[in-house]
Amino acid sequence: MTVHHDRPRTLGELRASGYKPRSVKEELRENMIARIKAGGDLFPGIVGYDKTVIPQLENAILSRHDFILLGLRGQAKTRILRQLKSFLDEALPVVEGCEIHDDPTAPICATCRRRHFEMGDELPVAWIGPEERYNEKLATPDVSIADLIGDIDPIKAATRKLAFADEEVIHYGLVPRTNRGIFAINEVPDLQPRIQVGLLNILEEKDVQIRGFPVRIPLDMLLVFSANPEDYTNRGNIITPLRDRIASQIMTHYPLALEDGITITDQEAWTAREGGVKVDVPYYFKELIEEVAVQARKSELVDQSSGVSARMTISLMENVVSNAERRALRTGEAIVRPRLADLYGAVSAISGKVELVYEGEQEGPANVARHLIGKAVKALFARTFPDAYKTRGKDASTNQVYKPIVEWFAAGKTVEISDESSALDFHEGLRAITGLEPLAAKHLHALEPAELGPAMEFVLEGLHQHSILSRERVDGGGVAYKDMLKSMFSGFTTRDEDD
């Protein structure tokens, strides 16, 4: 327990200080009111929920409601629940040594009631902080009543020569130990119905049977839950009485704007590293990484009922940075910019984070990951550059920006890009392509050779994803871009492994 030497240490001192007990929900409500009046961010680090989820959270707490967060994985549900303890008081008085944080002025457990009767105003008081008043449990099918509520302790009964029917022989579970605090249950549909009944009884009826002995425990707490909406609605594993008691149901969601996703990834990904190499990730590349998640969340190859966690883009960013860092360590560069090769080299961060439907399983996780990257490149290219399809047909005269590039490849020329080349060599190998450098510089705001190389590669990949250029892997690592028509006549495939 937290020690506060300047606070009352006995029940008599506590009463003399003017202390007035209040319920947890009233405490949370009053502290939230004060925080709202003071202004500022109520849930720091929670991005993209300002107009949707957070107002509903405020309503639930102001209404003194138990509530459930419903959302797919990776939507910050657990982080939100853990931040609720910031609305608790800095310190709370409890009976010293009490397992269930009894209020010294009105204890509820048998042991503290006896001590209160015997000691009166000399009853010792301790103080606990918010961390000690928050508990959470991941619901699994093997969670028992003993875990949550408690069980009889035969050793305690034998040592103190008490009957099993005596309330003082109970070993309390997590829920009673969170008395006067916040208890969170993650993935509540996985909790067996009989366990949910026990939970309901102790919260609604204020009693529970432990090994056949009825015990009345009038606990004071805020109960909060999280669940996947598919589990909640389809599996029907939340019993009706418990569902009815959950007063507020709050839906979470993935970032509604690409900028919110970028902010979350910037906030969570480990990119500020030591080791002698600085990896400078340009904004368009951050957009590209977030776009992979956007494409995954609407892909027919991905199981949309499972969702695509924000942890995927966080892991993807970290792997991209590591791939670029690894190359820079070999080339001796102090500053390096990521390339598409770094993104394609980070497919392990994608394949392990998405659940595939049958068609996706047939394609294989790695192929699906590369497919999603290709879709992301195509989508970002279409938003950032002029319409690539206007280079053909009757509209070709309206857009000539790609004509020099296409004609350069149509003349039978090929460019090979190595995964391991230095930034200067990389840029030098691409600048020979007519019209490529000014186009990349204009639309991706690249100025230096180290920036221009990856930007020029992005243009080539965008044209490949629009079926204007051909691309194939080459021996030794790297890719080669060629004219699509000549590749077809030469027997090359127009869809390589990355499509």
Describe the structure.
- This protein has about 500 residues and is of the alpha/beta class.
- It folds into three domains: about 10-250, 3-Layer(aba) Sandwich (Rossmann fold); about 260-385, Orthogonal Bundle (Helicase, Ruva Protein, domain 3); about 390-499.
- The chain is about 45% helix and about 15% strand.
- It contains 23 helices and 16 strands.
- It has a five-stranded parallel β-sheet. Strands 14-16-15 form a three-stranded antiparallel β-sheet.
- Strand 8 (about 205-210) and strand 9 form a beta hairpin.
- Helix 12 packs across helix 14 (about 310-330), helix 13 crosses helix 14 (about 310-330) and helix 20 (about 425-430) packs across helix 22.
- The longest helix is centred in the middle third of the chain and has 22 residues, at about 310-330.
- The chain is elongated.
What top-tier CATH class of the largest domain fits best?
Answer: Alpha Beta
**Which structural class do the helices and strands define?**
alpha/beta
Tell me the number of structural domains.
3
The H-level CATH homologous superfamily of the largest domain, spelled out, is: P-loop containing nucleotide triphosphate hydrolases
Provide the gyration radius in Å.
31 Å
Helix fraction? 40-55%
The amount of beta strand, in percent, is 5-15%
Could you please say which CATH topology of the largest domain applies here?
A: Rossmann fold
Q: How many E-type strands?
A: 16
Largest sheet: 5 strands, parallel
Query: Could you report the average pLDDT, rounded to the nearest whole number?
Result: 88
